[in-house]
Amino acid sequence: MNKLYTFLVLALISYKSQSQSLVSSTLLRHYTNSDLQAYFPENELDLYKITYETLDIYGNLDTASGAVTIPSMNCSAGFPIGVYCHGTQFEKQNVPSNRVEIDAGLFVGARGYVGVMPDYIGHGESRGIHPYLHEETEATATLDMITATKELLTQLAKTTNGQIFITGYSQGGHAVMATHKYVEENLLYSQFNILASVPASGPYDISGLTYEGMFADPSYDYPAFLPYLMNAMQMAYGNIYTNVSEVYKAPYDGYIQSWLDGSLTLTALNNFLPQDVDTFMEDSILLSYDNDPNNRIRLALEDNNTFDWNPTRQVKMYYCEADHLVNHENALLADSVMKSNGSMITEAVSGGASNDHFGCVQPSLLGAISLFESLANRCSLASVNELSFNDVNIYPNPSTGIVNIESYDDINEVHVYNSLGSLIYHSKKTFTKQSIDLSSLPNGIYHLTLKNTAGVKGTKRLMIQK
């Protein structure tokens, strides 16, 4: 126990001693409420690209980058922070700081959060090749960007209220787990007050379910993932191979490494490689992995699994059963192991049995936003036309379709609008209590506008989530 305590203290001192700091910030665009129509904005926002100091995979100081969304109005109580960790990218510049995969950041920014979207080490402005699914650098690049974002807020005479919420999809799900796990195990909640994390469709069990999934089908659609992962483990540990020919068969050993420089798309890499992974991987490597528990590749991958820890803050994992890219059993395994470790606040939730990897995105992110908004202390914004008449209760919210409205005053008109501003439901009927059926609507966020008999109107946001 004393050795464990000493390790944790040294880890904490080591983290605090690093010189994380904001290097630069560039305003990329100002978004008006009209620009943000699809996100039901509560405020306008500014999108920034920032660069900041962090450590690379070799422990050397590096300059990383990312995108930040900041609400335009002032909030004396401070804004909560909403972090989004992006999915797998092979192209070095296909990242949030170049306005790629920023919808989640715009969503949280439009709703009164500061949005933080790291590019990760080896992407964007960071030097070298991205160390794919490397747990520690996913975590430190994310945490150091949060620190740099707080510095930017200070420069802009704004502040945060200290609350942090994290979500991410696919690789981003792994990065969310890595970040939350790092904070938990290094006792860093006083610096990074993560109230909840929502990892979605992530490969938490790299050494087992994820690795095995690459070989389960002779026609694996994404063979480029395997050399991307092998290269990352070689970068991190230096012992996966002394020569690439030990891992890859000819002629692939001659050019696989050059394909991982960040200039090619995932589609191009997958087209260059055969879908049968056995065709380009050396048989001896595969046999050793299957039969030797001390195989160096297995040990490296096990070191970057993110499912075996004991969270004391809420972790809600989304998955979809028809996901053939990332096995949904990753979430179920993580939930089971965390609970067996003693955690009482983890949950694995299906985003839809028929949804594949791409169809699972929307329900997962809507679920994340719903959880965050149930916990976040957000500013009361004058720009939002919330219900101005008294004692109106709309429940459940989120709803699977049946919505109950109870009011002290008589309501005589109900309108429901979708994200495009189109009217999709209208009722004229005087009531103080009524249920409306919106079960035919797809998952999403809607505006419910009510008018009472005195002619007073107001709007409430409603989430449909089935």
Total separate domains: 3
Give average pLDDT, whole number: 90
Number of helices: 11
Q: What is the approximate shape?
A: globular
| Strand composition percent | 25-35%
Give the full name of the CATH homologous superfamily of the largest domain: Alpha/Beta hydrolase fold, catalytic domain
Mind describing the biggest β-sheet?
A: 9 strands, mixed
> Are there runs of 5+ residues with pLDDT below 50, and where?
1-14, 382-386
Strands of the biggest beta sheet: in what spatial order?
1-2-3-5-4-6-7-8-9
Topology order in helix (H) and strand (E) letters:
HEEEEHEHEHEHHHHHEHEHEEEEEE
The tally of beta strands, per DSSP, is 15
Helix/sheet category? alpha/beta
Cα(first) to Cα(last) distance is 46 Å
CATH topology of the largest domain: Rossmann fold
Radius of gyration in whole Å, from Cα?
24 Å
Q: Name the CATH architecture of the largest domain.
A: 3-Layer(aba) Sandwich
User: Which CATH C-level class of the largest domain is it?
Assistant: Alpha Beta
Helical content band: 25-40%
